[in-house]
Amino acid sequence: MKKIYIILVTIVTLGMTSSCSDYLSIDKYVNDMLTLDTVFLRKNYTEEWLWNTYSYLNNAGAEIANKGTNCFSFASDEAIFGDWWPRCRIYQNCEYTANDGYEDRWGHLYQGIRRASIFIDRVEGCPELGNSEIEDMKAQARFLRAYFYWLLIKQYGPVPIMPEEGQDVSLSYDALAVARNTYDECVDFICREMTQAARVLPVTRNASRWGQATRGAALAAKAKVLLYAASPLYNGNTDLKSLTDDQGRELIAQTTSEEKWAKAAAAAKDVIDLGMYELLTVKADETTVLPPPNIPSSTIPYPNGSGGIDPFKSYQQCFNGEITASKNPEFIFTRQSYTGSDLNDIAKHAAPRQMNGWNTIAATLKQEKAYLMCDGNPITSPSAEYPYRPKEFSLSNSDYPYIGANVSLRYAYREPRLYASLAYNGCVWENGSTTETQKIGLQYFYYKNDPSGKRLSEPDFYLRTGIGVKKYYHPDDSWNTGGQLKYKVEPTIRYADVLLWYAEALNELVSGQTYQIPSYNDQTMIEVKRETGSIESGRGMRYGFSRVRFRAGLPDLPDAVYADYESFKKELKRERQVEFFLESSRYFDLRRWKDADIEEGAPVMGLNVDKNNSDEQRPLFYEERLAEMPKIFLPKMYLWPIPKGELKKNKKLTQNPGWEK
């Protein structure tokens, strides 16, 4: 049987010019086979092929990026993009269709899959590579292929798993059509590939190779895939019973399996047991705002408490470029943009107009309220020592930690992650690298007619909720004269993710059963069951959850919360909302939990940005009101529509429920 891999090869650039329509287009590629053979005779061309395959993780393959590349952070309930660009409004109001191509990653990711498959099939034929090089590079390609499939099923649900051996070019187009696999079949394939890759990949890379797949990246990706498979959207979801293949086979499991949660917990424990990762922490110094002394864990050294670290800087510097990715012990897998602009583009769109920012990315009021008080109490039930006083204002720059003068006390005594993530009304933007010294360290307000508020002269450039965003901003970042920007990489998978996956999965093991799950190398069995555990024991829900809390300067949860399934699940969901703000996690978390209809179905709330800074109107700015962003949620929005053009070309493809065929 003659095989064909659908790819267009250019020897010099190894560039990709085919579109998603080319997967079943055969004839024009037959003549490229001799060229393909030539590529894999040379080491440099072979390496370039693999590096180019990595490039499919960028642009349309990115998970955290700017508005033109990835809008999932702005299509959920955590933040909105408010300038002239209509795409985020379209997502919030379900104005997109299977025809318009918005967030269409289908063709892009299948191109990456094809490149990886070709590499796996041909790399062993390169005479200029040693065996160890071949095995490592082949494992990287296997990781990439599995990760591309993961990105597909995360967005679209079950997809076709393409034949690894290629296809017979003599067959008709109809015969080459491939039906969707079940979701569980997709998960099984991805996990097998990740496991196989993990057994070969090194545990670490030097700085010059940072961003290439490692054992931890493969195991963490596997854990994430298994967690999603265990979640309600795909685990016994009768709401998706109508999602079938072309023969009527149900693609989503209709019965719930607790064992899926056990497998997810064990996969997360595989990553933990590597002993390679830790949450990023910055040592406390004379500038550190220490956690409240009434928190018992505040003086116990981290990781058993919050002692000895600066919680604010520990969280802030994880994202703002202060620490390079290769030196960040929390980063398991990252993406590098070729331009380095994606996260800085987010920062620029969040920055005030006087800094030459666009002043358009706004956090929702729901997101602001999710941040706890500094002693761990919610704003709805604060303590007497650390009250929540939204109707009062600070009088000087030294009244309260973090906030300056004339700032609403709704922002006083809040947990450090709020100050590292949100740009509240009256926030200081450091603007440290500009040569315009008069613009360094200024306080910015979002009142109507203020330079960064709602103004008739620039009707698109204001914060629709009155709550700004500071995540991904470095104090030295500046877009003014002489300004420079810190280079930042996408925090694709962080160790905080793994710890919370572990805790979440254990909480779901409510039957009382103990599971024995093989580790990735089949040499040991991992015991998982629902247990509180401890940091000292290296296992249990507390081991995963409390480390994230302590890094944030917050106390651990009481034993009673760990003991109660619903109470812990509520805390876990809030923790993920705060910890992974603006990391494209919330959009998919709400879907896998089947919470999106409630959380995203609610209107977007903000502050009253039509009030100015006069004595009379200043307090009225903090009135809660509907933001100027339409918002609905329809059941079909749990899955993204498969592009209509793909349905026309592949007759065996079926559309996701509710979307036009």
UniProtKB/TrEMBL annotation:
<dbReference type="InterPro" id="IPR033985">
    <property type="entry name" value="SusD-like_N"/>
</dbReference>
<dbReference type="Pfam" id="PF14322">
    <property type="entry name" value="SusD-like_3"/>
</dbReference>
<keyword id="KW-0472">Membrane</keyword>
<comment type="similarity">
    <text>Belongs to the SusD family.</text>
</comment>
<keyword id="KW-0998">Cell outer membrane</keyword>
<dbReference type="GO" id="GO:0009279">
    <property type="term" value="C:cell outer membrane"/>
</dbReference>
<protein>
    <recommendedName>
        <fullName>RagB/SusD domain-containing protein</fullName>
    </recommendedName>
</protein>
<dbReference type="InterPro" id="IPR012944">
    <property type="entry name" value="SusD_RagB_dom"/>
</dbReference>
<dbReference type="Pfam" id="PF07980">
    <property type="entry name" value="SusD_RagB"/>
</dbReference>
<feature type="domain" description="SusD-like N-terminal">
    <location>
        <begin position="56"/>
        <end position="227"/>
    </location>
</feature>
<dbReference type="InterPro" id="IPR011990">
    <property type="entry name" value="TPR-like_helical_dom_sf"/>
</dbReference>
<keyword id="KW-0732">Signal</keyword>
<feature type="domain" description="RagB/SusD">
    <location>
        <begin position="330"/>
        <end position="659"/>
    </location>
</feature>
